[in-house]
UniProtKB/TrEMBL annotation:
It holds the Pfam family 2Fe-2S_thioredx. Binds 1 [2Fe-2S] cluster. One of its GO terms (molecular function) is oxidoreductase activity. It comes from Peteryoungia ipomoeae. This is Formate dehydrogenase subunit gamma. [2Fe-2S] cluster binds at residues 84, 89, 125, 129. Its cofactor is [2Fe-2S] cluster. Belongs to the complex I 24 kDa subunit family. Keywords: 2Fe-2S, Iron, Iron-sulfur, Metal-binding. It catalyses: a quinone + NADH + 5 H(+)(in) = a quinol + NAD(+) + 4 H(+)(out).
Length: 159
């Protein structure tokens, strides 16, 4: 399949998502969430398509995409590791653990390892405050983390 056909299919799917959500109250966030669910990220060309459909500027759409940490500008790795950055987790040692994870992986927040295995994202509360520090790997919650637990989580994601 050539690149034009892929782009055309992607544009058509983005338009279908917009049509599905445009009658909702405040449709931009549902549209963005559905596009990310479909593609794994928000393709750059989607911003202009959304802007045109909702009678907004591309800058307004871009502002929303970049404001919310859940939206990605490029595809995530095979696994997504979210580390809690909320106060309860920080008070229980999440910051040194996060530093260690970034060091082990050789990446910073919102980056993906060179092998494409893991994308590291901050999250601001997983609801496990009483069991801090906490993380989520591909939707699975992990609590009461320490360096050993994180090592196992990273090994699981790399396997």
């Amino acid at each position: 399949m050539n690149i034009r056909a892929v782009v055309s299919q992607e544009t058509a799917r983005i338009s279908e998502i917009i049509d599905h959500c445009r009658q909702m109250e405040g449709p931009m966030l549902p549209i963005l969430h559905e596009i990310q669910a479909e593609f794994g990220y928000i393709p750059e060309e989607a911003k202009q398509i959304i802007a045109t459909a909702l009678n907004l500027s591309r800058a307004e759409v871009h502002g929303v995409v970049t404001f919310y940490h859940d939206f990605r500008a490029k595809p995530a790795g095979r696994h997504v590791l979210k580390l809690c950055r909320a106060e309860a987790c920080q008070s229980m040692g999440a910051e040194p653990l996060a530093d260690r994870v970034r060091q082990i992986l050789g990446i910073d927040w919102h980056e993906t390892t060179a092998d494409g295995a893991i994308t590291l994202e901050p999250v601001f509360c997983l609801g496990l405050c009483a069991q801090a520090p906490a993380a989520m790997l591909d939707g699975d919650l992990h609590a009461r983390l320490d360096e050993h637990c994180l090592g196992e989580i990273l090994a699981e994601a790399r396997a």
